[in-house]
Amino acid sequence: MKLIASISTVAVALCLSGAAFADDLTTPGDAKSLGFSAARLARIAPWYDARFESFPPSDGLLPGAVVAIARGGKIAYLQAIGFQDRAKTVPMKTNSIFWIASMTKPVTSVAAMMLVDDGKLELDASVSRYLPELGTMQVATIDRGTGKPRLDPPKRPMTVRDLLRHTSGLIDAELYFAYPERGLSDPTAEFGIRLIHTLYGWKAVFRRDKTLADFVSSLGGLPLAHQPGEVHEYGWSADVLGRVVEVASGQPLDQFMQSRVFAPLHMVDTGFYVPKDKLDRLVDSPMPERPPIWDVTTSAKLFSGGGGLVSTAPDYLRFAQMLLNDGELDGVRVLSPQAVKALTTPALAPDVRIFGGDEVGGRAGTSFGLGFGIRTNPIYSWIPGSVGSFSWAGFWGTYFWIDPAEKLIGIQMVQATPGSKGRGAVMYAGINHLTYGALTIPQPPASSAPPVAPASVSPEALADYVGTYDFGYSVSSRDRQGLADGKNGWLGIESFVAMEPEGLRINKPTSGAPATRAGAMAGDLITQLDDTPLKGLTLAEVLARLRGPAGTTIRIKIVREGQDHATDLSVVRTVRRANAVQLQVRVEQGKLVAEAVGAWPILEFEKGKAMPLVATSSNEFTVDDEDHTRIAFVRDAAGKVSGLILNSGPWEQKAAMMASELIH
Fold this sequence. Notes:
Layout: H1 2-19, H2 38-41, H3 44-54, E1 64-71, E2 74-82, E3 98-99, H4 104-118, H5 127-130, E4 139-142, E5 149-152, H6 160-165, H7 173-178, H8 187-203, H9 212-219, E6 231-233, H10 237-249, H11 253-265, E7 310-311, H12 313-324, E8 328-329, E9 332-333, H13 337-343, E10 353-355, E11 366-368, E12 373-375, E13 390-393, E14 399-403, E15 408-413, H14 421-426, H15 429-437, H16 459-464, E16 467-470, E17 489-490, E18 497-500, E19 503-506, H17 514-518, E20 525-529, E21 532-533, H18 539-546, E22 553-559, E23 567-572, E24 574-575, E25 582-588, E26 591-596, E27 611-612, E28 614-615, E29 620-622, E30 630-635, E31 641-646, E32 653-657
Parallel strand pairs: 6-10
Antiparallel strand pairs: 1-2, 1-15, 3-7, 4-5, 8-9, 11-12, 12-13, 13-14, 14-15, 16-25, 16-32, 17-24, 18-19, 19-20, 20-21, 20-22, 22-23, 25-26, 26-27, 28-29, 29-30, 30-31, 31-32
Helix pairs in contact: 4-10, 4-11, 9-10
C-alpha cells in the first residue's frame, strides 16, 4: 500500500508540474483534478460574506472581495463576492480594479531584476552610482542619554540590494505610526526615532504632482535612520528603487513596466491609474474619500514603485504565475530563473535587526528576500503554507502568496482601512486556512481487497476517546504550522517581543495570559530562562526556549525599570485555544462522533456538524467523506488515550488530547 500511495503521489506531482507549461488562467477548471475539494472551496465566499456583515464600511471594510486560487497553472477558484461600492449597489466583478498599494513592490523588484538580467543594473553597486544625489547621506544615530540624533558617516554605501530588501536606512514617515511596537524601551531614544520619522514627513516631497526624480532629490538632504545593511525597516526603499529603474533603463517607470512587464504578461488592467473607460470597474475606497496621494482616477507625475499600481485578480494572477514558472508565462520569458531565485531566497542575515510590523522576523516565522516576505519557520508563522512560500500585502488589504512546493497561488483583493477592525478581520489567516484546508488527500488506486467490515466497540471503550484534540494551527497535511509538535504551551508574551543586547524585551503581554497572571508587565526585560542567560542569543533561539508542552513550568528572570533587583517568575504554560484547529470527539446515541470546534474547519469536519465515526477496530475508525478519512487513536505508555492521527501515512495529521484544565 505504501508503494501504491507513493506512485499516486508522484502521478499527482507530475500532473501539476506539467500544468505549469500549459497555463490556463482564463476560466476556473475542475477543482478535484487540481487536488481541491469543491465543497470545501465553497466555504470561502460565505466566510467573507460573514465578515462583510459583521464589519460594515463604518468599521473600515468595503463589502466586497475577489478571490483567486490557482494550482499547477490552472484556476481552481475565481469568485467575486459582495459589492464594489460602499452603498452596496454595484456587484463585485472578477475583473474589478483595486488599488493594490504595496503589492506594487514585488512588481518593482521584478523590474529591477530584469535590468540585472540585461546587464544594466548591479545588485551590489552603490545606489549613488545611479542616483548621485543620495551619495552624501549621513546616518542619524540616537544618543540614548539625550535622545538627540547625531550624524555619522555610513559604514558602507547603500546598495541596490539594500533597496530590494529594505536595509537601506531609508524609512517612511507614515509607517512609524502604523507600527508603534518598535522594541525600544528607552522613551528618550524613542523620542529621537520619532523625530527622524517626523523629519521625513516634513522634508520628503512625495506628491502626485512631483516626479520620482523630485522625490529622490528631496531625500538627499535627510539622514538615513540606520546604517545600511544593519536594519530591515519597511519604507521608501522601493520608491527609490523605482527611480533607479528609470535611470538604468532610460524610461519613466510606467513606460518600462508597461513595455517589459504588463504587455508581455497580458496584464490588461494594471497601471498607475484607471482610464476613464474603466472607472466603472474601480472599487470604492473604504474611506469616504481617497487620500489625494492615492487618487488613482487620474494620471500623475509620480510613479510610486512602492505603492502606486492598480490591478485586478486575473492580472496579478498572471504576474504570480510567471514567478511560479521561474520567470516564464505562455512561452514568453520575462525574467531569468536565477533572478527569480534571488528574489525569493531569504536575504536577511541573522544579525539584521527588524523594525516595524509583524510580517517579517523570527516571531512571524518569516524572512525577507528581494521584495517578498518568505516563510521560513512554520512553527511561528501566522499562516499555513510550505516553507519557501513567498508573499506580500497591500496597505488596503490586497494580498497574495505563492507556494512553490504545492504549485499554488492565492490572491485576495479587498479594500479596508489600515488599522481598522474590518481589515484585521480579513487579513492573512482566513484565505490561507480555507485554501489549504480545501486540499484533498491523494487517494491510492482502487484496491481489489474487500472493504473492512465495521467492528464492535464497547461503550466503555468509546468513552476513552471522548475529548478535544489539538492540531495546533495547521489545517493541512502539507504543513506543520503552529504548535502541533507536542510543544503547544503558551505564555502570552510571544507575539510582541524584541531582542536587545541583554535579553528579551516584553512590549505588549496578553491580558489574562499565564505570564501576566504570574506578574510579567510591558517593558520587562527577560534576562534568563530556566537559568540560561539570553545575552547573545537570537530571537528565534529565545522563542524556541519559551515553547514547551502545556502544563510545564518555565522560570523567568526579569529586570524591571525602577527596581534595583531582578524578579524571578514561575509560569505554567497553557494551551491557547484561540485560532487553533481542534476536533471534539464525543458519544451521541451510543455512537462516536467528531466535530471541529476550533477557529477553522479541518477536512470535512466543521462547527455544528457532527460526523459519525465507524469503528474498523478497537482504536481505528473511518468517516464516510470525500477523503475517506481514517482516524487512529493513540495511547501513551500507561495505556491512556493521548492523541489521534488522521489518515496515517504521508498525508497524516496528528493531534494531542487536551487536558481541560490547561485550555486558556
